[in-house]
Each structure stands twice: as structure tokens, then as C-alpha cells.
């Protein structure tokens, strides 16, 4: 690990100023991913700006919105009474992520900012367009078992590793930012991005923009929810595929529904078209299977991850059945 400077700030303005002033600086929150990346030489900031003292830990209700501070711990979010009552899908998704120890350190903002776990990204001897643009993608013809089946390019087929973000994208969350040019809001769906020509860029943040909170609008999707994460071991592993499902049922008719997949793309994968297909239909396995076939349209395997072309629709069907009690 290289030597680096360390400063601690206690206001949002000081946090933003410190990053804008110094191009080689990064914010440090829980550090559960960043410190690993620094140890491996994948990220080499010359200065860390510790933001843990910022007043961004609160979880509260404002009007009909649930606001979760960017520095709220993952374990706090998963256990919070308001979250569990009003947005149980989020609690389940957060609970599915990482280990208890990591959830006790990791923050909401840091969870969104974590980097892919593609092994080529972490090995500085291997080609990787995300770590070093223009060097190629080691995973494309290599060990790509964990990789994307939806992508807009073959320059990078990495997946975003966050479970929490799959829940947030399904719940129509908004990301609240503060930056050098003032405050900004980004719909969660537009926060993470597909790799395109800039695989090194995971999200649409501009330099110096700090995640302050996420906001989730009230909904009636808190009774029939499920987050199904399929992974190699149940104790602690990233998703091969995950499915976030929240349904508003009227009798056995689907009145409203939110769906997203994880482990399939460079960003959490919202399934708006599939939601529209299911709205107004009966909550039956037949309809779920048709919906899953629609969900997988346009997907493509790259060899070792071909199994995801079956696993993803099957995971969605199982999650829908569990959420709506049809299993
Ligand atoms: Fe790098 Fe992305 Fe290819 Fe992995 S998939 S080697 S992160 S470019």
C-alpha cells in the first residue's frame, strides 16, 4: 500500500472543498471496499478525507418520503423500524449483503459506491478497461462466471455488486447530492450506468459531488415483498443473480409491482417492461413464467456465465411466487 495523507472533516462543505481542491483525494466512510482496493494497488489516492463525522446518519420520515442518511450503517438500515415497516424490500436487500461484520461498518453511500468484484479488476497484472482504460477486458474470454448478461459493450462485462442498490432501484429511490455547484438529485435508476465507452466510470456523479442521502417515496408495496439472492455459499458471497420483488395485490390481481435484478449488469437492473406486463394480471405461476421470459430478452452469455440465462428468469419466478404466496 502506498503512503497517503489523512484528514477528518466535520461539515459537508469542508468535505466537498477538500475533494475539489485535490484531484488525488478520495472520501473515506466505512472503508470496507476502498481499503482493500488500496492494499491491492487498484486505487492509489494520495489523500483520504474521512467523512464519518458528518451529520448524515439519520433515518427519518419527511412528509411522505423516507430519508436515509448516506452515513447510516447498513446494519442500522436493515434493523430500522421505519424501514422494516414501510420499505421492507430494502431491509431484506441490505440484510442479504455481505456479512454482519461488514454491515456494521459499511454505509449506505459507500454501498452504492463500491466497485465491481471482477477478479481482473483487482489483479493489477491483468488487462482491465475499468482499472486501466484501453488495456482490454480480461474477463471477456476469461473467467466470467460472475459477469453480466446485459451490457451495451464488450469493453466491460462487470456487474455491480450491491444488493442494497437492487432494492433501491426497484423502490424508485432518489439520490440526494451536494457538490461544488450546489445540491442535485438523481433518480436512482440513473445513478449507476452501463459501461459504454467509459467502463472506468461506475456512476453519473461529477467530481466533488457527495452523496448526502437517499429518499424513497411512500408506496403500497410493503406487504408482498421478497429479495432472493442466489450465491455460491449462503454465509457470505456476492450474488450470481438476485431478484427484488414488491407487489401490491388486490385479491389475486397485481395492482402495482416493482421488479429488479442484481448480478446481471453493470448497474442494478430495473424491469419496468416486465412490471407493465404483470400489472392488472393474476398472480399466477403461468404469468410469472411469461414475465420471466420477457425479463431475459436481449440477454447474452459470455461462456462461463451462460447458466445465468436460465438462472435469472428462474430466480425471478421464485421470488415472485414467494412474495405473493404462490409457492
Ligand atoms: Fe475489467 Fe470490466 Fe473486464 Fe472485469 S469485466 S476485466 S472490470 S473491463
UniProtKB/TrEMBL annotation:
Keyword list, A-Z: FAD, Flavoprotein
Residues in FAD-binding PCMH-type domain copies: 1-221
Pfam families: CO_deh_flav_C, FAD_binding_5
GO MF term list: FAD binding; oxidoreductase activity
Gene3D superfamilies from the UniProt entry: 3.30.465.10, CO dehydrogenase flavoprotein, C-terminal domain, Uridine Diphospho-n-acetylenolpyruvylglucosamine Reductase, domain 2
SUPFAM superfamilies xrefs: CO dehydrogenase flavoprotein C-terminal domain-like, FAD-binding/transporter-associated domain-like
Stored InterPro entries: CO_DH_flav_C (IPR005107), CO_DH_flav_C_dom_sf (IPR036683), Diverse_Substr_Oxidored (IPR051312), FAD-bd_PCMH (IPR016166), FAD-bd_PCMH-like_sf (IPR036318), FAD-bd_PCMH_sub1 (IPR016167), FAD-bd_PCMH_sub2 (IPR016169), Mopterin_DH_FAD-bd (IPR002346)
Annotated PANTHER family: XANTHINE DEHYDROGENASE FAD-BINDING SUBUNIT XDHB-RELATED (PTHR42659:SF9), XANTHINE DEHYDROGENASE SUBUNIT C-RELATED (PTHR42659)
Name assigned to this protein: FAD-binding molybdopterin dehydrogenase
Species, as recorded: Segetibacter aerophilus
Amino acid at each position: 500500500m502506498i503512503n497517503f495523507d489523512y484528514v477528518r472533516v466535520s461539515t459537508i462543505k469542508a468535505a466537498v472543498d477538500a475533494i475539489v481542491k485535490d484531484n488525488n483525494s478520495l472520501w473515506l466512510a466505512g472503508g470496507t471496499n476502498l481499503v482493500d482496493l488500496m492494499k491491492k494497488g487498484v486505487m492509489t489516492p494520495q489523500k483520504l478525507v474521512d467523512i464519518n463525522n458528518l451529520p448524515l446518519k439519520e433515518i427519518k420520515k419527511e412528509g411522505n418520503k423516507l430519508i436515509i442518511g448516506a452515513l447510516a450503517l447498513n446494519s442500522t438500515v436493515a434493523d430500522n423500524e421505519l424501514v422494516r415497516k414501510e420499505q421492507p424490500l430494502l431491509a431484506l436487500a441490505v440484510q442479504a449483503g455481505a456479512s454482519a461484520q461488514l454491515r456494521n461498518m459499511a454505509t449506505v453511500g459507500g454501498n452504492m459506491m463500491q466497485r465491481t468484484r471482477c477478479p481482473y479488476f483487482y489483479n493489477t497484472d491483468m488487462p482491465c478497461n475499468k482499472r486501466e482504460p484501453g488495456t482490454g477486458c480480461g474477463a471477456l474470454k476469461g473467467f466470467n462466471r460472475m459477469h453480466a448478461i446485459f451490457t451495451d459493450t464488450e469493453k466491460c462485462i462487470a456487474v455491480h455488486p450491491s444488493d442494497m442498490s437492487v432494492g433501491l432501484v426497484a423502490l424508485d429511490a432518489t439520490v440526494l447530492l451536494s457538490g461544488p455547484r450546489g445540491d442535485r438529485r438523481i433518480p436512482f435508476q440513473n445513478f449507476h450506468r452501463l459501461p459504454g465507452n467509459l467502463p472506468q466510470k461506475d456512476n453519473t456523479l461529477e467530481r466533488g459531488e457527495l452523496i448526502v442521502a437517499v429518499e424513497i417515496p411512500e408506496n403500497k408495496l410493503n406487504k408482498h415483498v421478497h429479495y432472493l439472492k442466489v450465491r455460491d455459499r449462503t454465509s457470505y458471497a456476492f450474488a450470481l443473480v438476485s431478484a427484488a420483488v414488491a407487489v401490491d395485490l388486490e385479491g389475486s390481481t397485481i395492482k402495482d409491482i416493482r421488479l429488479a435484478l442484481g448480478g446481471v449488469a453493470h448497474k442494478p437492473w430495473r424491469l419496468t417492461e416486465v412490471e407493465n406486463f404483470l400489472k392488472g394480471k393474476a398472480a399466477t405461476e403461468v404469468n410469472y413464467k411469461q414475465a420471466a421470459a420477457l425479463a431475459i430478452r436481449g440477454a447474452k452469455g459470455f461462456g462461463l456465465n451462460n447458466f445465468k440465462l436460465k438462472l435469472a428468469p428462474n430466480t425471478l419466478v421464485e421470488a415472485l411466487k414467494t412474495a405473493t404466496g404462490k409457492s
